[in-house]
Each structure stands twice: as structure tokens, then as C-alpha cells.
């Protein structure tokens, strides 16, 4: 990655590159979360419908189970994401409020703090002092938020966006096993579902390994094995229940 941006002065090049890394990094995080959400939707819904298919050939039962699994899973994911991002945003807001108060009540100590933080990043004492003074004059709270807290006060994470994205990602993933078990004729249901689910897990495993810059082989094998295990276990349980006449 570091060799990907040639040219420019060393300092300017690095700063430029870091700005890009920031934006690219958050986009990659979103993409990774979306792929993981879809993967969850695929595996949990596939396990559910394959288990029910082990017990019954009734299409209405399969549709009901699959759709319930899709809705329950996507709403559970969305609610969990909403709670977690809300909590994160609350603590970021509290940190900003504290920072705002400190800036009001002890501006000198805060200027010194910002100076030291900039010094620690490699600036000389005088340059750090000058930079801190300029940043403070322009927008003290933003400077402290960025340098000290590592957050952008204008871009706090939105819990509704996070919840919506999780809901959507899980739903997209869950639709695959749901349609694969409901649409084909009875004798084709299981093979179509198992093959399409395993193929989809190859794709999601491959993409998430690529996003983490890891070698895809092992990640794909683990991902496919996880899905195969889920389907195998629920199918065995469903078959036993079906055979017992439950
Ligand atoms: Zn501060």
C-alpha cells in the first residue's frame, strides 16, 4: 500500500496518503460490515430452512420459517447495531462536552496540551506551539476533537444509518437460502440450497479476506466449513424430529 503513491515530497506525500487512508479506511469498514452481515444472513437462514426441510416437505412451512428467520435476524442485527452505535455516539458527545468545558475554563492548559500532542507527533516545540495557537484560533474544539480524541465532531456515527445498513445486509444474504429452498421443486430443494449457499460463502469469504488483505484460501475454507456445519447440524436435528413425528 505504501508504495502505491509515488512522488511528492516525503512529508506532503505522507499527509496526502493519510487523508486518503482515512476516507478509504472508513469505506472499507462499511464494506466489511456489509459483507459480514450478508454472510450472517446466509448462514443462519440456510441453517434454519435446511433444518425445517429435514422435517417437512411443506412449502408453506418452509416459507414461514425462512421469512421469519430473515425478519428476526435482520431486526436483531439492526437493533444490536443501533444500541452499540448509539452508545458510542453518546460517549463521543460526552467527551466533546467535557472538552468544550475545559477549553472554556482553562484555555492555557488546553493550549499546552495541544502543543504537547503535536510535539509527540514529531513537530519541534516552537512549530508545535505555533500550530496549536493557529488551530485554537480557528476552531479550538475541532482541533482537540481531532488530535486528542481522534473524532470528527461533524461526522459522529449515525445509529439509524448503521441499523439500516445491518438490516439491509442481513436481508440480502437471507434472501438467497430462502428463495433457494422455496422456489425449486421438492426433490431439488436441498441440493439447490446447499450448492448455492456454499457458493455464496466462497464469494463472501473471498471478499472479506481481500478487504482484510489476507490470503483468501483459508478464509474461504473456514467460511464454507462454518456454513456446511450449520446446515449439517440443523438438517440432522430436523430429520430426527421429522422421523420422530414431532
Ligand atoms: Zn483538550
From TrEMBL:
Subcellular localization: Endomembrane system
Main localization (coarse) = membrane
Topology of this chain in the membrane = Multi-pass membrane protein
TM ranges: 165-184, 190-212, 224-244
**Region annotation Disordered: residue ranges?**
1-20
Keywords, A to Z? Answer: Membrane, Transmembrane, Transmembrane helix
Q: What is this protein called?
A: VIT family protein
- Species of origin: Streptomyces glomeratus
